[in-house]
Amino acid sequence: MPLYVEGASNALAGVDLLTLEEGRSEAVVEDAGGSRVNGRAILLGALLAVLFSAINGYLSINIGWSFSYGAVAVILAYSLFHKLGGGSCRKELSFVLISSASTLGLYYGLASVIYILQTDSSISCPHWMAPPREAIVQASLDPRYWIAPISFLFLTTALTLVAGLVFTYVLREEFIRSDKMVWPQTAANASLVDACITGGGSARLVGLAALIGFAITFLQNLPSFWGYDLTLLDLSPYLPRGALFAISLSLGFAAIGYMISYKTSLSLMAAGLVTNLVIAPYLVSKGTVEYTPDIMQTYQDLLFKFSVSPALGVLLLGGVLLSVFFLVKNAFSKIPNKREGETDLGYAKLYKVLVRGLLSDRRCLLVLVAMAVTVFSLVWVFNPFSPLPRAVSMLITAYMFLLGSFLELVLITKMSGETGMGMGIMSIFLYDVPIFSTGYRGYPGFWSYPYFRPSPWVSNGVLPYIKYREKFDLSWREILKAKLVGWVPTILFSVAFTLLLWKYVGFGTAMMPAVQLIQSKVYLTMLATGDITGTINPWMFLTGGVLGALLEVFTPVSMMGLGMGMLLPPHYIVPFGLGGIIRWYSDRRLGREFYDEKGRLIVTGLMASSLIVQVIMTVLNNFI
């Protein structure tokens, strides 16, 4: 995802995004007492942004998921300001909410490069993409090795962020005035802010849950300083040869299992148990998978010789087939008449709006041109698609910058606005397939192309708050200031956090299984080498995709849970499933309303404190 770096604010000022004219006065009615956003809101928003960034960075590297903590941010701000700080206002709570949610990091960019070089000695990367191999072998944090690749990520992500903001600004009215674009999570957070101001609150639930999660996880990890591991229960030695069954006693992962759909959690547990207790010993008995007493080593062998092929088929091909199914279904469905308040969000119309908006606003046009010139200059200098000629690299970049990113932005914005969910799978068709069809083979181009086009994700970080800006009692200027408060510290923190995790915990360990990196490397290797059969089993890939899509459509099984169950180490299968069982029971016993009103707050507090303490204690254990 794109990030903010120093210098972007000057560009934004040139576009005048902070002082947009919306046909109304910028003066916003304030709560009683005339309170405004002050230092305490900025400080709390920045601190929460860093905390949430650490949690989601850890989760995204390991399982490819991230979560929203908006409700927790609002309740903490309400507790600290309104209850303990002598009063607060809607504007202040909203500012903390937005800034805490603005967590953009370099986790994937750094971690993926490290993992690629760490696991394959035959791969070489240019200096702007990765440090020298000796730095990876030695796990060195010497700044000399990291200046070039980190600087590249900082610069290019800043460019993509500003360009994405320009696209968002020009297209904002088309999305905001559509009745279909509701952004349900943001609407719920707006209601929560209103509930806190008008009375009530659930701060005690979050605080108590966080305290419990902290205490349990701290006590679990404390004996590790003396060589006793109370965080993991390995039962594999007591099972048939080759069977893998270990339980991570992680409160945080059980909380995640509760937070996501119980269909996903239970599907994940079922797929994981079948893979590790049935398929693994069978493959070991046939000699396909080599047995070792080290559970992680056996898991890695099982992963690359079996699990990854059907799992990627489920997650990648299954997602494609599912999208095609629903497109066909919608195409044959009766199209209702357009209701009042609905707008045409077709690609052709929106692209015309974009072009006309840029031509009519010289400041936006100049900033976008400046971003484009810088990006194209970097492409010309680095030629990321080498050995293709520089002219071909420029043509690929022109397509991505002028058309591909626009299509992706519209797709992601519409999905999130209408359903509250977003998927990046469309990048396969918008970028990977066109680049692959040029004949390019190599790691740098497929890894770096997201940094050479306007960010398609930034719109969902801004538009929902503009949609409900009156409920949040924030102006455009204040919304973007809140975004900057979150962006600035999290980009800096993400670099240090990723490097520390790699050096002192490692990628591909029981603590850091790095499933997302494994999955990404396999897919990237297919593109970079053009050798599908050398990377995955095509028949298992196809079978997994078809089976996953059919199960998603015709049964309660979750395709996402099915794929992740085959990819995750055996340690996490039971915690996820246990959380799913508790969620299934509470939904039936107490009703879905319990989760919406209390359950989500409780497990968020448990998850946040447990995962943070778990990571910190593991890092400290390597120092002491």
Summarize the structure in words.
There is one protein chain. The chain is mostly helical and 624 residues long. Helix content is 68%, strand content 1%. A two-stranded antiparallel sheet has the order 1-2. The longest helix is centred in the middle third of the chain and has 37 residues.
Quick overview of this protein structure:
Helix content is 68%, strand content 1%.
Overall pLDDT, averaged? 84
SSE order, one letter for each helix or strand? HHHHHHHHHEEHHHHHHHHHHHHHHHH
Strand content: under 5%
The count of β-strands is 2
Q: In terms of structural class, how would the helical and strand content be classed?
A: mainly alpha
Computed Rg: 24 Å
Share of helix among residues? 55-70%
Tally of individual helices: 25
The main sheet orders its strands as: 1-2
Q: What profile does the largest beta sheet have?
A: 2 strands, antiparallel
What overall geometry do the principal axes of the alpha carbons give? globular
Which regions have little confidence, pLDDT < 50, spanning 5+ residues? 1-34, 335-343
End-to-end distance: 35 Å
